Amino acid sequence: MKKIAYGKKLICMTILMLCGLLMAGHDVMVAKTNIEDEAYVYTTVFPDGYTPHTNPKVVYLTFDDGPTKYTPEVLRILKEHDVLATFFVVGNTQHTHVMGDIVAQGHAIGLHSYSHDFGQIYSSMDAFFADFEKIGDIVFEQTGVRTDIMRFPGGSSTKKSNAKTIMPQLKDEIASRGFQFFDWNCDSRDKMGVKTASVALDKIKSGSEDVGDIIIVLMHDTEKITVQYLPGVIKHFKALGYDFLPLCIASPAVHHGW
Ligand SMILES: [Zn+2]
Asked: Which residues contact 221 (CB under 8 A, 6 or more apart)?
């Protein structure tokens, strides 16, 4: 017992000496002296590395159907405002090289579809996963990332083509392949007839009012107006005290029902 106590004391003293050296010249008090409080010492000295995310208000900005010629501008705006987002990408685009920039800037990348052809991908399980594997391989080639997040084209509640018939099986298979899928609870309607940036921004503001602390916003980096309304979206949620996070498999999953 004595030996263990001595060992603890020695480790504790070493930690405190190191902390003292690191914090020399700074007005930081490291008052704890117990080895049991080692974690406390570290969280005090290195708050950026150890402070957990505690703000319950989180907005996840998500962009579907890119990359397109507008994606670099979307990335520039996100960087300018220092926020991270998520891109659910497709494969039939001339801009797949932009996927590398998405990941390099710290954003999340998720699978959406290779073809985004509802009639084709929802015609059968085999057809869906042939397409799904194709976009997975492209993302890996372009980014080196084997992502584990995805969004169904049209969302999991889509009634297009044969989707409703095979969706229960699709969800099971997606999960068994280690993926989480994400729908949304706030829609910009930027690809659904909304023609101006100000209307899309209003849709997001009004559509997120009663959603709660966790908001997943659906946008498309295929539209010119997205580039125009995005700064307003960021300013809006910042003013309301939201943090901006990229989605990951552990994120709160917003799933549609029928
Ligand atoms: Zn889509």
From this structure: 63, 64, 65, 66, 67, 68, 70, 71, 74, 87
Domain boundary among 50, 66, 87: 50
Question: What is the number of structural domains in the chain?
Answer: 2
Q: Between 165 and 195, whose confidence is greater?
A: 165
pTM of the predicted protein model? 0.80
Distance from residue 236's CA to the centre of ligand 1 (Å): 25
Residues 63 and 40 in one domain: no
Minimal CA–CA distance to 158: which of 215, 114, 113, 202? 113
In which element (H, E) is residue 81 found? none
Distances (CA, A) of 238 to 108, 233, 235: 20, 9, 5
CB 218 within 8 A of CB 62: yes
Distance 220 CA to ligand 1 centre (A): 8
How many Å lie between the centroid of ligand 1 and the Cα of residue 201? Answer: 19
Task: Assess if residue 124 is contained within a domain.
Answer: yes
Is 221 within the bounds of a domain?
yes
114 and 138 part of one domain: yes
**53-92 pLDDT, tens per residue?**
788 999 999 999 999 999 999 999 999 999 999 999 999 8
Q: Which residue has the tokens 């539209």?
A: 223
